[in-house]
Design a protein that fits this description.
Layout: E1 13-19, H1 26-36, E2 41-46, H2 53-63, E3 67-71, H3 78-91, E4 96-99, H4 111-119, E5 124-128, E6 135-137, H5 141-158, E7 170-173, H6 174-178, H7 191-202, E8 207-211, E9 213-215, H8 226-262
Parallel strand pairs: 1-2, 1-4, 2-3, 5-8, 6-9
Antiparallel strand pairs: 4-7, 5-7
Bound molecules: guanosine-5'-triphosphate and magnesium ion.
């Protein structure tokens, strides 16, 4: 499918922060975001965190008309929280939607760089640890291996040029999100990020990677689990098989057509 011509209002930005037990992080990340990109609005999508993150978010929202809160029933994974956040933002006409973790790994001060790439013409921008200029701080070697390995696995199966397929610090034009059938996305864990970039590329959208410095969380607990890694492995492998079979079928058809023409 050809890339759509976009009429998105690029100065109308919504940053979505999914939270589950981020009471030690949510206030500082919100403050930093407000300072770094003062015109942007923030939506905190909280899954009824037992540690009271939702109440802190309510207080932040009551003090600041640029901060909004979505209270969700219970823990459903970051994919579901982002999808609900995207729909909320698209319904309200935001032109650019950003995914941003609460735990300090994504640095609000680097968001202007992502938005600049959107304004320069990208349909989707990925903050990337694994392009030149990108880096990780305080990450254990084991996490780096999982992340680099996951991106390599994805690139090999799907044949995509993206170096940091699993990265979660991303900016999307509204038209990109409208053009990638969000209703069909079923990925729950960080495979969600691969799902979206794969859909964007398949639909002909221009994806650009911008280097970021990714910082290991200082406070609170990671929600990464074996289940999340297994989900990503299974889904990318299935997409890869489908993709490679499609390539083989097309190749076979072309060969047959050429054969017909020759006879
Ligand atoms: N609403 C919601 N947010 C979630 C859920 N799971 C994780 N998050 C949030 O998604 C963001 C990323 O989660 P992390 O636990 O940092 O996962 P990660 O970044 O893959 O793993 P680490 O690098 O180990 O921190 C954080 O802001 C979490 O609070 C969930 O089920 N629901
Ligand atoms: Mg994290």
């Amino acid at each position: 499918m050809a890339r759509m011509t976009s009429q998105d209002a690029l100065d109308s930005v919504l940053v979505i922060i999914p939270t589950y037990n981020e009471s030690q992080n949510i206030e500082s990340i919100t403050t930093r975001l407000r300072r770094a990109v003062p015109d942007a609005h923030i939506l905190i999508a909280d899954d009824n965190s037992p540690d009271g993150t939702g109440e802190i978010a309510d207080r932040l929202a009551s003090d600041d008309d640029h901060v909004h809160v979505m209270h969700r029933k219970g823990k459903e994974g970051l994919g579901a929280a982002y999808l609900a956040g995207f729909h909320w933002g698209l319904d309200r006409g935001y032109g650019v939607l950003v995914s941003h973790d609460a735990d300090g790994s994504h640095q609000p001060e680097q968001l202007p760089r992502l938005l600049e790439a959107i304004r320069a013409g990208a349909d989707m921008v990925k903050g990337s640890r694994w392009v030149s200029g990108g880096s990780v701080v305080n990450w254990p070697k084991s996490r780096e291996l999982i992340s680099r390995g996951g991106s390599l696995w994805t690139r090999l199966w799907l044949g995509i040029p993206v170096k940091d397929a699993t990265g979660g610090f991303n900016a999307y034009r509204a038209s990109t999100l409208r053009g990638i059938s969000l209703d069909e996305v079923a990925s729950a864990g960080y495979c969600f990020q691969i799902d979206l970039v794969w859909r964007a590329l398949k639909n002909g959208f221009r994806v650009v990677e911008v280097p970021i410095e990714f910082v290991e969380r200082e406070f609170g607990d990671s929600k990464m689990s074996r289940h999340i890694v297994v989900e990503a492995l299974i889904r990318t492998t299935l997409w890869g098989i489908e993709h490679r079979l499609g390539q083989l079928t097309r190749l076979g058809r072309r060969t047959l057509t050429r054969g017909d023409g020759a006879s």
